[in-house]
């Protein structure tokens, strides 16, 4: 099953979003949080922390990344480049609103769906909601 990684400027925001998503759909999706800097005390994202968490996920699985703001995306892309294209086919970045993307990713994620199918399904559904 695809593992999900939340990248957020705020540890509190990421934890609250995950709590809500798990309450609404408590499936077995594994969700990693990469949020805040200085152990989540301050706002921001760390390219190095993103790279390290991605490296750990990619040892056994693929990773769908959900991010909150544009600078989070910038750090995600830089972290992926730092992986030197070793795992690019195992990483997908979701283009969907943060909370809705998380909720739907957890809802649709299962052993029978590929990361590409999961990404496309969530993006299509969120796109329909935000026309």
Verbal overview:
The chain is an alpha/beta fold and 131 residues long. It has a single domain (3-129), classed as Phosphotransferase system, mannose-type IIA component (Rossmann fold), CATH 3.40.50.510. It has 5 helices and 4 strands; from the N terminus they run βαβαβαβαα. Strands 2-1-3-4 form a 4-stranded parallel beta sheet, sandwiched between helices. It is globular.
List its traits.
131 residues, alpha/beta, Rossmann fold, 15% strand
Please write out the topology.
Layout: E1 3-8, H1 11-24, E2 31-35, H2 47-58, E3 63-67, H3 70-82, E4 91-93, H4 98-108, H5 115-129
Parallel strand pairs: 1-2, 1-3, 3-4
Helix pairs in contact: 1-4, 2-3, 4-5
Please provide the count of β strands: 4
Unreliable spans: none
CATH homologous superfamily heading: Phosphotransferase system, mannose-type IIA component
Q: According to CATH, what is the topology?
A: Rossmann fold
What portion of the residues fall into strands of 2 or more residues? 5-15%
Distance N to C terminus? 30 Å
Whole-number radius of gyration? Answer: 14 Å
| Helix-strand category | alpha/beta
How many distinct domains?
Answer: 1
Q: Biggest β-sheet: count, sense, barrel? A: 4 strands, parallel
